[in-house]
What does this fold into?
Amino acid sequence: MEPYFFYIVVSVVISLILFVFLGVRRAAFEQNTFLCSYMTEAGPVHTLSVALEPKEDHGQKEPPKHIEDDPKASLTTVDQTVLAASFDKVNKIFLEQASNAKINQIALSEICKQVRCLQGALYKVNDEKELLALVAGYGLTNKAERETVDYGQGQLGQAVVDNEPIILRNIPKGYVQIASGLGETEPTWIGLFPLSFKGKAYGVLEMCFLHPESEATKNYLVKVSELFGAHFFNQNVNAKQSQLQQLEQEKLKTEAILEGCADGFIGFNKAGVIDFCNKSAAQLVGKPKKDVLGQLVNTLLDIDIEVDEDNDTFKIVHHGMVKTTLTEKTEIQITDAHGEPVSVLVTANSVSFADDFLFTLFIQKISVDLF
It folds into this structure.
């Protein structure tokens, strides 16, 4: 394999790594800034809205019953007190068990038990694949379980698109079955609650009920869905930070490899500003690396970036005695540290990524062996 083919492959790889590194770092920074801003404005969530706060009842002397203690109980003021306590418990789960791999299942089980939901499913958004993936379930049957749902598919997918709760009533027979060892039945109503955080849906909480619909239940589920939304937002930020660390490690490895190359390597952006230069390239132009970085490639090597109208892209040209378009191992002359012309072979490449461009030059000095 010719060495210049290797140079082309390596230059494309380093270009992609540099752009992905910068893009992920910017995204992680923006999301972290966004989260910090939200927490500063809103503060930690510890209580429910007024709709879930218990009304004063000075005649109430005994502690409120757990909802599960009475399957026929309606969601009264006493039950709102239970829901408020449950909200605090779910919030505590997210605060103290964020690294627990089973946290989604733990939180979902707590929620379903409190509102007497006999069947529930938790879906998380996968932006890359544009679908919802099932991450936890409660009382699901094989028939009811759906591993993935596309954006906008059915009412579940529509809840993400609209980022608004959807309540389904008058459920058709056979639409969904709540099953036990003794038989099956249809739910009275189904609630689809987007896991919304700062205006974006990060998933959907789907709940099936046998007991009558109530505002207290729906308001509680909206609030706990927001907790899930914030949790998934944090997971996304952590994943981007982990990806950033991996890319940074790859970037350092690639830079180390290029630094050790006998041939010169220079990388610059669309403005022509040099942002990478190895030791060999610095020696060729007769300047320390620190003086090369940040310079315009036009000033250093008399090289410019021009628009290639035929291919709707860019081309790299050298202004010598004759204007030359640089491609693979193009021979040009540059000026060394002593002001003397030096013949070199240059392989130039450009890489497009995320609406931006990165340009690279592999520079090999042409030497003549004397016998």
User: Anything to note?
Assistant: Confidence is low (pLDDT under 50) at residues 27-78. DSSP finds eight helices and 16 strands in the chain.
